[in-house]
Write a sequence for this structure.
């Protein structure tokens, strides 16, 4: 829970305005969680709600922050909007803490009366971030296998070669 309050304090330091894939990923993951959690709430599966809405999304936020490298590189507007939606999702589980966080975000009204917004899930941004996660894990494995590696170079084929490969698969 301290993580949420600390992130709210850090919002002012977030300077980037450009929307990057990690921003779209963060928003898409929240939308995905909201859809799953809505069904869990309706079926009174509160443990599942806690796992998805709190623990899973907490890890998504940690990934996002690591992708930004420094807090100044995060998109403050996007993080604030995502936090507001996340608090709405968490509110039935943690009403007092989420209401306090809501006030710290500058909101005046009661969180209990807020409704969740619904947006389409951007699956492409999720796929891109998952690919990046897998790539980073592969680099870690390579580094463990080769004892004295200081750097790893990634060579990516041109777009044209990917198109040829795609055509060969379909024929």
């Amino acid at each position: 829970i301290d993580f949420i309050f600390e992130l709210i304090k850090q919002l002012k330091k977030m300077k980037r305005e450009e929307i990057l894939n990690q921003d779209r990923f963060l928003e898409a993951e929240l939308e995905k969680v909201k859809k799953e959690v809505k069904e869990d709430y309706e079926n009174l599966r509160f443990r599942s709600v806690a796992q998805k809405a709190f623990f899973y999304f907490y890890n998504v936020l940690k990934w996002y922050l690591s992708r930004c490298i420094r807090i100044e590189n995060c998109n403050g507007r996007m993080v604030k909007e995502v936090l507001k939606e996340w608090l709405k999702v968490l509110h039935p589980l943690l009403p007092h803490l989420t209401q306090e966080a809501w006030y710290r975000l500058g909101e005046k009204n009661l969180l209990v009366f807020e409704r969740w917004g619904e947006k389409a899930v951007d699956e492409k941004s999720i796929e891109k971030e998952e690919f990046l996660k897998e790539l980073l894990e592969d680099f870690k494995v390579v580094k463990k296998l080769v004892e004295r590696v200081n750097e790893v170079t990634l060579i990516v084929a041109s777009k044209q070669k990917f198109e040829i490969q795609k055509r060969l698969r379909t024929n």
Summary: The CA atoms of residues 5 and 101 lie 6 Å apart. The chain has a mean pLDDT of 91.
